[in-house]
Design a protein that fits this description.
Layout lengths: L1 H7 L12 H9 L5 E3 L8 H4 L7 E5 L11 H7 L4 E8 L9 E8 L6 H25 L31 H10 L6 E5 L2 E11 L10 E4 L2 E5 L4 E9 L5 E2 H7 L8 E2 L6
Parallel strand pairs: 1-2
Antiparallel strand pairs: 2-3, 3-4, 5-6, 5-11, 6-9, 7-8, 8-9, 9-10
Length: 268
């Protein structure tokens, strides 16, 4: 965005702290009618929120508010098994993602859709929704609905613990975790102390014949026993290496039948 603004001669501010008085002065000098905020990680003080002529900032949030307020709504929607998500155009207020909503765009979450793929689709949906909201604001037709705070849920930032694959869990949940964390940072497990990232996998129903975490090989096919069913990886990555289809990965890093995989070791 910064490169595009500079190339087009659009006034550009890139402050370390958006709350500094000099920033408010610089924005005021532009005499803005409206503000639009997307994926901005700093708290916006009241003097910034109310500075535009219309008196507010619009925000495009990647969830169906009041569900999944917070930093990681796309990954959390997949991880929690939601059937749909979307974009909510809301007014920025002091409380995080709690402002009134003016426009919602819904979309189903694909059965095999990763966080990366869903993020791209939602970005396009957000661009269209923001454009529509700006047009409505310009014409005075934007209407707001307060969120039902009693229905709010939260999507905190992903932590390292969220990436760990615990094979005691059901395969269906593990497959969702893989999709929710792909392509970055990637779901992770450990083999003989070495970190492996699982970037694509599917759940396979059926009884297992070994304890959770046990690898089963059938030619180039790899299955891992879980608490309920099998997890079948299709893309794996060793630390510092590039992601590989499982067939190619196993040629360079043969995982023997009966090997035990486990969650990564926790930091001391």
């Amino acid at each position: 965005m910064a490169e595009l603004a500079l190339a087009r001669g659009v006034p550009l501010l890139r402050p370390e702290r958006v709350g500094d008085a000099s920033v408010a002065d610089a924005i005021a000098a532009c005499e803005p009618d409206l503000g639009v905020v997307v994926a901005f990680g700093q708290f916006l003080p009241k003097r910034i929120r109310r500075l535009p002529r219309l008196g507010y900032l619009l925000n495009a949030h990647a969830s169906l508010l009041p569900a999944l307020r917070g930093a990681a709504p796309i990954a959390r929607a997949i991880l929690e098994g939601h059937a749909e998500t979307g974009i909510s155009i809301m007014r920025v207020e002091r409380e995080m993602d709690a402002g009134p909503v003016a426009l919602v765009r819904r979309t189903p979450i694909g059965a095999d859709e990763t966080c990366g793929a869903l993020s791209e689709r939602l970005a396009a949906l957000a661009a269209d929704a923001v454009a529509e909201a700006v047009e409505r604001a310009a014409s005075g037709e934007l209407r707001w609905s307060e969120q039902d705070a009693s229905q709010a849920s939260f999507a905190p930032k992903l932590e390292r613990a969220d990436t760990a694959l615990d094979f005691d869990e059901p395969a269906a949940l593990l497959a969702r975790r893989v999709r929710a964390l792909a392509p970055r940072p990637g779901a992770a497990c450990s083999l003989d102390g070495e970190l492996l990232r699982v970037l694509a996998a599917r759940a396979v129903a059926g009884a297992t014949d070994a304890p959770p975490g046990t690898a089963r090989r059938a030619g180039s096919r790899l299955r891992i026993a879980t608490g309920d069913g099998w997890l079948e990886p299709s893309v794996l990555q060793r630390a510092g290496r590039r992601p590989l289809p499982v067939e190619e990965f196993l040629r360079g890093c043969p995982i023997p039948d009966g090997a035990r995989l486990s969650p990564p070791a926790r930091d001391p």
